[in-house]
Amino acid sequence: MILEHPLIDNLELLAQQVVEGFIIGLHKSPFHGFSVEFAEHRLYNQGDPLKHIDWRVFGKTEKLFVKRFEEETNLRCCLVLDTSSSMQYPDDEKKVSKLTFSCVAAAALLQLLKRQLDASSLVCFDDKVEYMSECRSAHSHYRMLTNELQRRMAVVDANKRTDAVDALHLVAEKMHRRSLVVIFSDMMDDGEDTDRLFEALQHLKYNKHEVILFHVADGDKEVDFNFENRPYEFIDMETGDRVKLQTGSVREAYVNGVAAYRKEIEERCHRYQIDRVWADLTKPVDEVLNAFLIKRNKLM
């Protein structure tokens, strides 16, 4: 099923607008490569980033030389996107789903990283890894990743379960050490697998990756359970299971249960030094993303 939504046809343009709004007035990037030591020069090869050319040497020799470092100077970033069926909530053409929200935010980050000539990759998963790109910095690569995000947010599939554990272990092994890993998920995995999930996140940290988790949810319905006090039939988007109930009879227990789960996720992220970002669908995506980027910029 193809979803029709006004954001889908303009994803790259919308992402550029989000980034432009953030960059205005800022002089420092919120993402940085790692500190390195200069090693030597080598002759410039076509395709090398222009920012690594030593123009002082060029002025003396009229030849293009590139600075070589002990380690790569550019940031490597992997965007990890949960594409399970629960991310398609709310299933309403007039509202932004968790998947659409995440794709727009991811596309905006791609635009920002492209400006910095950083290398990026994209991983999409549900109960298995559905897509994994190479980590590259070419403009054509960024266009390919944006197109993949646009394609992902346009396709609606039912009964796709969430299993982030294997996907995160794969990213931990495949990505170059000391990369930035940004995860977009509603964290609707099996609650009994929380320990396994954080073991996978610890694997990322053990391999020296910096981890940012965008915890995406509909604060109005999924957190505060703001439904009219009448009978509803709720459908599990990942399993198809149905349950009929009177919302007023379960609201308090539901809200308390969700609050406890959110607190556990927040505390564990803090313990393992994972930057958790609460991404509420009731707020515009640019507001959520800009608040995070400005906060991160101040911490540099």
Structural class: alpha/beta
- Which parts are unreliable, with pLDDT below 50 for 5 consecutive residues or more? 1-5, 34-38
Q: What string, H for helix and E for strand, traces the elements in order? A: HEHEEHEEHHEHEHEEHEH
Largest sheet: 6 strands, mixed
| Helical segment count | 9
What general outline do the C-alpha atoms trace?
A: elongated
* Rg (CA only): 21 Å
How many domain units?
2
Strand order of the largest sheet: 5-4-3-6-7-10
The rounded distance between the terminal residues' Cα atoms is 43 Å
Write the layout of secondary structure elements.
Blueprint: H1 11-23, E1 38-43, H2 55-61, E2 65-69, E3 76-82, H3 98-115, E4 119-125, E5 129-132, H4 139-154, H5 164-174, E6 180-185, H6 194-206, E7 210-217, H7 219-223, E8 231-235, E9 242-246, H8 247-271, E10 275-280, H9 285-299
Parallel strand pairs: 3-4, 3-6, 6-7, 7-10
Antiparallel strand pairs: 1-2, 4-5, 8-9
